[in-house]
Amino acid sequence: MNSVKENRNISDSSLLYSFMKGSWGYFVLSITCSFIASGADMVIPQILRCAIDNVIGGSDEMTSIVRTITGWFGGTQRLRQDLWIVSLAVMAVAAVKAVAQYVFRVSNTKGSETLAKTMRDTLFSHIERLPFEWHMKNHTGDIIQRCTSDIDTLRRFISEQMTSVVRILIMLILSMTFMFSMNPRLTFIALIPTPVIFIYSLVYQSRMRTKFRVCDESEGVLSAMAQENLTGVRVVRAFGREKYERDRFEAHNEQYTGLWREMAKLMSRFWCVSDTLCGIQVLVVIAVGAWLAVKGRMLAGEYVAFISYNSMMAWPVRQLGRVLSEMSRAGVSVERISEIQRADEEENEPDAQRPDLDKDIRFEHVSFSYDGETDVLTDIDFTMKAGSTLGILGGTGSGKSTMVLLLDKLYEVQRGRGRITIGGVDIRDIDTKHLRENIGMVLQEPFLFSASIAENIAITSPGIDMERVREASAAACLDEAVEGFAKGYDTFVGERGVTLSGGQKQRAAIARTLMKDTPIMIFDNSLSAVDMETDAKIRASLEKRFGTASIILISHRINTLSKADKIIVLDHGRISEEGTHDELKSAGGIYQKIYEIQSGGKEAADEQ
Amino acid sequence: MSSKKTVEKRDRGLPFFGVGKILPFVKPYRRTLITMVICGLLGSVQDIGMPLFQRYSLNHFVQGGTVDTLGWFIAGYLLMIFTQSAANYVACEHALRVEVSINRDIRNAMFSHMQTLAFSFFNQNSVGYLHARIMSDSSRIGSLASWSLMDTIWHSTYLIGSVVVMFSINAKLALFVVSIIPVVAVLFSVFQKRLIEVNREVREINSTITGNFNEGITGAKTIKSLVIEDTMIDKFVNDTSKMWHKSVGAARLRGLFAVTMNFASSAALAVVLWRGGYIATEEVGTFSLFMSYAQGMMEPVRWIIDAFSDLVTTQVNIERVSKILETRSDVTDTPEVIEKYGDSFYPRKENWEEMKGDIEFRDVSFMYPDGDEYVLEHFDLKIPFGTNIAIVGETGAGKSTLVNLVCRFYEPTDGQILIDGRDARERSQLWLHSSIGYVQQTPHLFSGTIRENLLYGNPDASEDQIMRALKLCSADEVIERVPGGLVGDIGEGGDTLSTGEKQLISFARAILSDPRILVLDEATASVDTIIEQKIQNAIDTIIEGRTSIVIAHRISTVKNADIILVVKDGKIVERGKHDELMALNGYYHNLYTRQYEDEVTSAFLG
Q1: In this structure, are B137 and B192 located in the same domain?
Q2: B274 neighbourhood in chain A, CB within 8 Å
């Protein structure tokens, strides 16, 4: 219970922080490696400088570190004879850099992928544990969008933007430090244009982002237009509006292309101006550096090294503008994800019980409303003996499915509006998982998973016991249909597989429920798409199979209900009649009328 | 064109990566492309020039110890910066322009071609697939024709230019540096090939994960009632672990790729230092020039290989696009017919005859192009103007076949369909469609306003006619409810309206076009009883004075039809008036009784 409370008040940043658990190590490693790689980048110009000035140029002006290092190899004179040693030094540093860079990239990906995995896993298991009510309230498309593209935006933010900023800053600071150590005055001169370049790139990038959004929206419209045209192809053809459609599409396509043409100008201008600015900055460094060198304040190697550092600085400055302008997107995504994360998961009562459920089921004066205004169920009160069969007759909107949802705790009976008990225990006090594990429910429009038929039937049990699968499938009269498929029980069904007919789906769902072998079974209109004969066959095999189970049958076929030990007629959320088939068929109520219509249906129809 | 040749070659992929197929789309922009290429060359040449400036600065100023020409140097350098920026600006702008233009042209071509394709095509290709062809293949091809070309030009110019400069200055040293290129190129190609594969694998897993989310959310009720949350979560975690491994694997490969490139640059640099260090004694500038080129050469190699791999991967897109563009419709008008009546885009309405509305099936046999069984055999049926035909049967029994034939969505495999006594093929499709009104089972409205939707069937309708049509279908109340009324936006697919309301609007749309023949695919959607009554009334109103074909899901609504055709398993099993069919005591009787029971039961249970 406590964790839920905390969940509610969770802030966006602490949510992100909690997702980062497990990826910190990778990020620390990747930043360390980035530091090493950048450091190696800085060393190479120093080697070249030393090679040009001291080894080849013969100058004796060098820092003590350089002197010590060259000393190891027998001094600059000897190195001059064996330049390959210097080459090897370059290669060695390059190798260090390569390794560091590689580790940086890999651990950066590991970090961001771990983060993405944590987010996906957490969200998915959270969503699976959210109450059914939440699922009904939210749009599937929207949630999926949040779980996929928003997570991706966040992943990119962490792996590209955040580490980029760190890398860029490291590069900037290091190259500035080295430049400064060589020639402070030239460094200041080199730095003068950088704020201009940075601000220019920041401003331009955010302008382009706005334009990008406009382009995206326009593309969305165009895409929707194509989509509508393709889905509505019958309407288009039947009304002969091909020309209209084409003209409309082309007009919008032109508009969209026009937006991109503007964008092309803007982007080209940005590249062109920032190239020019950077070019001028380089020119300033080259020209002033040359002048300084001529005046003897700089050696040739220093000059070359300085130009290298300067070019290392140019890229990060331009990049920084882009990265910063994209950061705002991540905030929106975190917000959208945390909205899901803040919803409360299903929770058991603290001292939930796990009693045996092969007991009497009682609805005690249960009333229920989804919206808090209109009641879907009013004062439902009945007892169902353990091991008996209860039939419920009701039309659409009579509340029969709601009764089942309440019994399965997919919705909960509000306090003070009656209660449901099994063996005298209020189901609110029964462990939800335990309750559902003991209720086998087959829905009218069953959902099959993207998996083989065998996997679907055996989904509730670990491993696939083919013998039991076959047995269940025979009891549900599904076996013949399955044998008709080329791959039999290995036939892949669901969204990306073979499409089963409504009746086949219902029978697969029945087989799936039979595998559970539960003391309570509910069939919510689950034979509606099956023809009369199969319906009878399935019922016969169910009767044989479940001597002891309590069975609830919901249907509007009298045939299906007639053998039930007790039948309830639901009318607008109230129980209007209650009794056995024999009692009700002559009770003068709705049941009798329907019975007469259905048994003497043909004659009645003929009279019409 | 040479369609036979392409069929033969398709198995082995298109020749020259399918470039020939996109030439017609590129041709209109050849001037722009030429400008782009010239400016790209110009910009690239300047890139080669930069190190030469540095060389001069080092050799002349630093080593020569003079600043005499510094003014000229700065002027020259500035000139180079500005010409390069200008050249690159033009090149980029042109490349982007070509990209979006080709993109647009392919989208247009695909879209308008699809307007002419037959229904068999739409049955064989899902909307999602076709949509992706219009929207995403076009952009891949556009960027291939502009950016891949641009990149190749920029980078190969730089590469060739720098090699030439190096050779002209010091051939021996140049040879050492250049020898690294082929090694690197081979390595990169290998990496690139693997990378394409790995990226595909990552995309596949990613779509599995999206599928998992979808299943976990839409199947929530089932998952909860079966208590298999943990199974689902385990499966999910398993897939995300796979995703992790694949992504990290891809990152390793990409990392190796990048690292190799950087290392190769450094290796080139080391070679210059080792074999060319001696030059620095006399000409530091030349030494630095070699260093610059050595370091800058690997990047272009990578870009060229990138461009090439784009060409290879885009081949698939080109193939798919050209396959669709080369698809011919199963239902076409003959040249003579087009000559007289015009085609779908350029009708010649002056030659159109007024339609009376008689339909006749004469010895029609029909098999769906993707089917292997005749669904109609030697079928004869006369439907004189004003007749009301009903087609009944269970869901999925194939009730749409006759409608598909009357509307010429398909052509009969054998036999003839006569409209006003003449073979339907003697006149254009648009002529026929202009006189047909069509109301679909799941009403399809377009984004926009109600008014735009109503005018779909008759663009010239007056305000008066619109209001009358709305009243006739009791759709005028919908207008009152919708914010903005007739000209209020109803959202994508008209989704701000309820199904029943959409149905009423689609009736009004059909009435407004005042068709001689009306096709109604009756709604099964659950609408409330008040709307249902309105819809029934609307149907009764609009079929008056027209030839009408109603596909009925509930028999009770069509009992009064002039002829009822009963369909089972795709075939017409019984036909006649209601009373005759009931008297047969066959399939129709059975169907009717069952539906009647269900209806009455539901009516009682309310």
Answers
A1: no
A2: 83-84, 86-87
